[in-house]
């Protein structure tokens, strides 16, 4: 059933109230020049559309997207995509999932990485992206000094550091890694890297809405139109297959 919610606070853009969100480049989930602006964006747009809302995107670097999207004085309603962690639960109101992220470790294919428990990664130089949250267990291990992390400005930068052996592993989403390694800049070196079969986790991707009662109708609408994880995975597979055919 399709229904429309029109809270008084929402910006009026004709028949559909506006949801204004900050977003950063994180292909294939988000991308200003990707079909539908990325699979995560396209899924979100469809969920909001079925509830009678219109999505407006504000493209920002990640740290600004988080800061401006979650700030109390912001003109934005929130930002995406985001994981569920203790930190993000404090920072915002998290929506129903808009995608599924397999988070794990990239490494040199010729140099196997042996790990079962988080402490096992303490022997490796671990690349992370500055400003990203990962899993609660991983972030807690970093805070406790169990893991040695080396920050970078982007996932692509971490893959380049991995190729130059400046780090041993890089925390990255599986589909993001696949997308970046298919780009011309890294395509010829793609065979040198592998995604570890032992994941950090499969994490739902969500919208981080600012705290406040006025955004509750949007959260409720997204919950009412939420998609099962299996359907999100299937949609991502279809999107990635079509994207590969176009590249």
TrEMBL record:
<protein>
    <submittedName>
        <fullName>Amino acid ABC transporter substrate-binding protein (PAAT family)</fullName>
    </submittedName>
</protein>
